[in-house]
Amino acid sequence: MTTLLIDRIDYLATFDDQRHEWRDAAMLIRDNRILWAGPCVEKPDLAMGETLDLSGHVVMPGMVNTHHHMYQNFTRVMAQDDSLFPWLNTLYPIWARLDDEAIYLSSKVAMAELLLSGCTTAADHLYMLPNGARLDSQIQAAGEMGIRFHAARGAMSRGQSQGGLPPDNCVEKEDHILCDAERLIRRYHDAGRHSMLRLVLAPCSPFSVTPELMRDAARLARRHQGVRLHCHLAEELDEEDYCLAQYGMRSVAFAESVEWLGEDVWFAHGIFLDDEEIALLARTGTGIAHCPSANMRCGQGIAKVRQLLDAGVPVGLGVDGSASNDSSNLFLEARMAMMLQRVAPARYRSEAPGGRGGFGGDPGALSAREALTLATRGGARLLGRDDIGHLAPGMSADWVAVDMNHLSFAGAQRDPLAALVMCGPFLASQVMVNGRMRVRDGQLLDTEPAVLIREHARVMTRLYQ
């Protein structure tokens, strides 16, 4: 057994059930688990191994990214002013050239960004597997980067000739999708506690797959312990129109009709939900991955996060695709989530006496700590994890430290935790995943960024030819 004492932490935020926050704190790690956390004056009298002095640092749980499309970092800053459907139609032809090398390198770039921004667990929705590409290449990348990973076997099966949105050369046969999903689950899925790799089944969206695939995927997932379900839903008014035209019902009703509600399901976005649909999600324990940056970038709208939380719907954060966010930074995403809820239109200001027009917001709609809770405990709940998302004895040793000796922290010492959201942006100085350091002194371990960037650029050039 190996033991690490993380000592003299300036500010430790555990996000545990009691929401403990301590100044001058310490944490004891044994192998891949937390043994103890608390004030330095209460340190247990145990034989210590290595000691890491984190004076001047804020320490919090590693964050959890619940929705991403990592391959999209080959198409950043494209279709800058388009709504979702035109944006997709611009990018589909480029994505149709992806192969295993492209998926592997784009995944490593995205995972490097996530680790540096304090993310220790990520779910990626890989629904483009053209040219013989397989999810195995992304799983290999996750193993090399040392990030805790939920690999989503995404799929599109309904091309334009069958009434779907994607071109026919971007879709797969449904029998192949299901057979490959079964293969991946049997080869890679680990449902155990502290698992570093789990599988998710993730048909892309109501406008790119058939109802039969949705239903078959749900039944396949539920035959295997810990395999969860994920797809896009209620993201765009065009999607709502599509569901009404094709199925005669709104998106959530369609999901219910194909057995896609339950505690093992989380949807990306969930912007266009009415009160009854929110209540249904709450009753069934169905979750939402909130992706504020992408929603703003494509002008989609503002998810009702405050209402979702108040109703009891599980909510986490996702950076979404690197072509709709153009970044993979969870600190920034937490900040965007907080700010966007504060400007969500609660009512027309013109209704107030002497109204001046415009929309009124609520500066108390979402606090900095609530935003970070979405990024930690909220994400862990969406992924069905009881071993990550907060720091307490028995939990996985996944934590992140940020150095307070930074210009953006000047004047914020009264509340260093809130400063991670309200100030910045910050990158992590230390990151541990499953008891192994992955970032030390702000530098990725076992990865040379310059080499990764060069290889990524080489493949991007090939994709654009």
From TrEMBL:
<keyword id="KW-0862">Zinc</keyword>
<dbReference type="InterPro" id="IPR011059">
    <property type="entry name" value="Metal-dep_hydrolase_composite"/>
</dbReference>
<dbReference type="Pfam" id="PF01979">
    <property type="entry name" value="Amidohydro_1"/>
</dbReference>
<dbReference type="GO" id="GO:0046872">
    <property type="term" value="F:metal ion binding"/>
</dbReference>
<keyword id="KW-0479">Metal-binding</keyword>
<protein>
    <submittedName>
        <fullName>Cytosine deaminase-related metal-dependent hydrolase</fullName>
    </submittedName>
</protein>
<dbReference type="InterPro" id="IPR006680">
    <property type="entry name" value="Amidohydro-rel"/>
</dbReference>
<dbReference type="GO" id="GO:0016814">
    <property type="term" value="F:hydrolase activity, acting on carbon-nitrogen (but not peptide) bonds, in cyclic amidines"/>
</dbReference>
<dbReference type="GO" id="GO:0019239">
    <property type="term" value="F:deaminase activity"/>
</dbReference>
<keyword id="KW-0378">Hydrolase</keyword>
<dbReference type="InterPro" id="IPR032466">
    <property type="entry name" value="Metal_Hydrolase"/>
</dbReference>
<comment type="similarity">
    <text>Belongs to the metallo-dependent hydrolases superfamily. ATZ/TRZ family.</text>
</comment>
<feature type="domain" description="Amidohydrolase-related">
    <location>
        <begin position="58"/>
        <end position="436"/>
    </location>
</feature>
<dbReference type="InterPro" id="IPR050287">
    <property type="entry name" value="MTA/SAH_deaminase"/>
</dbReference>
